[in-house]
Write a structure and sequence with these properties.
- A five-stranded parallel β-sheet has the order 2-1-3-4-5, sandwiched between helices.
- It has five helices and five strands.
- Helix 2 packs parallel to helix 3.
- It has 124 residues and is of the alpha/beta class.
- It is globular.
């Protein structure tokens, strides 16, 4: 499979983390689109139609949970796989994320190779 056609939206308010994920995914051959919060993320989803989304939870304006729930309400975006990438590592947070339907949950600090493996698994 050719990753070059696969677009990944990274929704993360921390520029350093967003850039780290972007550089790593681009190195793996993905096209990366960026957003600084959930509100911006929704706009980017409409413009770019990504194949997969990696989102933080704690962000200004619209957090990752609200962003995810907004995606799931629209027929044209409800099938896009979502990976949560967050510092929230409490069992209750993780359980809630899986209950609402996120595809994967990765806690920071994270191994970028593990993130890439999960992305490849979901997109295959």
């Amino acid at each position: 499979m050719d990753n070059n056609a696969r677009k990944i939206l990274v929704v993360e308010d921390e520029p350093n983390v967003r850039n780290f994920v972007k550089v790593y995914l681009e190195f793996e051959g993905y096209k990366v689109i960026e957003a600084g919060n959930g509100k911006e993320g929704l706009k980017r989803v409409d413009e770019e139609k990504p194949d997969l989304i990696v989102t933080d939870i704690m962000m200004p304006e619209m957090d990752g949970v609200q962003f995810y729930l907004n995606l799931r309400q629209k027929p044209e975006t409800k099938q896009i796989p979502v990976i949560v990438l967050t510092v929230k590592d409490e069992f209750e947070d993780i359980k809630y994320a899986y209950l609402i339907g996120v595809d994967e949950y990765v806690t920071k600090p994270f191994d970028p190779q593990q993130l890439v493996s999960k992305i490849k698994e979901i997109l295959s």
